[in-house]
Amino acid sequence: MDVRVLIHRSPTGTLNVSEPKSAQQLGSQQRATMYGTMTNGDHAATNGEKTNGEHTATNGTTTNGDHAASNGSNGATPHTYALPKSHQDLMERSLVDTDPEIADIMAKEITRQRESILLIASENVTSRAVFDALGSPMSNKYSEGYPGARYYGGNEHIDEIEITCQNRALQTFGLKAEEWGVNVQPLSGSPANLQVYQAIMRPHERLMGLDLPHGGHLSHGYQTPTKKISAVSTYFETFPYRVNLETGLIDYDQLEQNALMYRPKVLVAGTSAYCREIDCKRMREIADKVGCYLMFDMAHISGLVAAGVNASPFEYCDIVTTTTHKSLRGPRGAMIFFRRGVRKTEMKAGKELQTLYDLEGPINFSVFPGHQGGPHNHTITALAVALKQAQTPEFKQYQQQVIKNAKQLERSLTGLGYKLVTDGTDNHMVLLDLRPQGLDGARVEAVLEQVNIACNKNTTPGDKSALSPCGVRIGAPAMTSRGMGEEDFDRIAGYIDRCVKMAKGIQGGLPKEGNKLKDFKGVVGRAGWRGWRS
């Protein structure tokens, strides 16, 4: 059994699980080619190591019964496999044979994904081609440094991959190389943001980002009145801006007023649970009045931006960061885009003076050697593949359908009487406010999970606790990747409605003194519970 599978919806609408055709080839033929280890039968050995039977040397010549030398010539001293046969077996055995415990857990996770409705807004289902790149020998190479300036040899093909990935990143978002550069080495979104801050700020300089309970992200400097939660708030001074509690929309007037008083070095736009497009033009105006950098974290919407179904932040921003696995549908990595060229032009003493951007060097240095060592070359390879896919008409059609499906959730849930934060959505998610139902997101999440619907509890504006917030975040990307449309998402809204009503009934049936979250989960998780049929 090969546990690498792809979950998809067939043209007939049924959900299927398919194994990559190349899985067994990658599991045996490619490894034999990579390592040249002893196997039975005919073989292609890249290093001419000893095998049984006939062999093909690296230059394609065939020898009779003996060995293929590393240069393919006859008469060379044959190589032997220095390690015991058990080591060869260790290198050649499949995952199922080598570690059935892990293989079994993976198989169960694959089943969970296949049999669940996946509504977590920060998740997606990536393509077979991306999986093939992730599980490739590109993972073997260590490559500290950047293309043309590595600290290790043997990186000519790694350089090709990274340069290709950089070029595709710029092409995907319609950027000119003379105006923008990109670093594709960051391992994840939060480290990428920290790498930017460290590149352009000294310790304890100031940053402003959207408050986490109002839709922001931890890496934008989240802290509470009593505790610095994010490391960003430990290294730098952070001050949040917020949304209007009545509308759920960012209060740009209050943001401007606070920014002019606080004078941050960096103003961060971008969110993790905000369903409306950000007014980047207004943010640019505020940043210019303050004299600070404007950074946009488009982790959630980068796929929507690439397809042109959400507005691009690049026109107005100095720096743009993104993860690569959410709506972009790539591997788990990150990118940092930075401006090149003229930052501003001003007149002094009758002369025009230009100030140039100085971001490329500091940001690249912050990524390596500042925060990371060798990049994950298999991830960069997979990202290059995902970026190529993101330039196709099919990807644009997919993102258009993501928006349609999210809008269908908006219509269906509001039609069922639910309140949505901001009263709707412009992107890939909706944020359900459960306060009118007297519930919190943690309880509804627990019931949804019991019926194989995966979503996440989420803070809403005004929440006091991230552990028991009043919201549930519902995203469309993953199930759209599996082929679902508006009719399907209308049904999903109905399932969510039934689960909310079940949660309400369970909560109402618990005694007041035993109505804590753990008591609720105890009832929901109890063997034999059949709330779905109630």
Automatic annotation (TrEMBL):
GO terms for molecular function: glycine hydroxymethyltransferase activity; pyridoxal phosphate binding. Its cofactor is pyridoxal 5'-phosphate. The keyword Aminoacyl-tRNA synthetase does not apply. GO terms for cellular component: mitochondrion. Keywords: One-carbon metabolism, Pyridoxal phosphate, Transferase. PROSITE patterns: SHMT (PS00096). This is Serine hydroxymethyltransferase. It comes from Friedmanniomyces endolithicus. The lineage of its organism: Eukaryota, Fungi, Dikarya, Ascomycota, Pezizomycotina. The gene is SHM2_2.
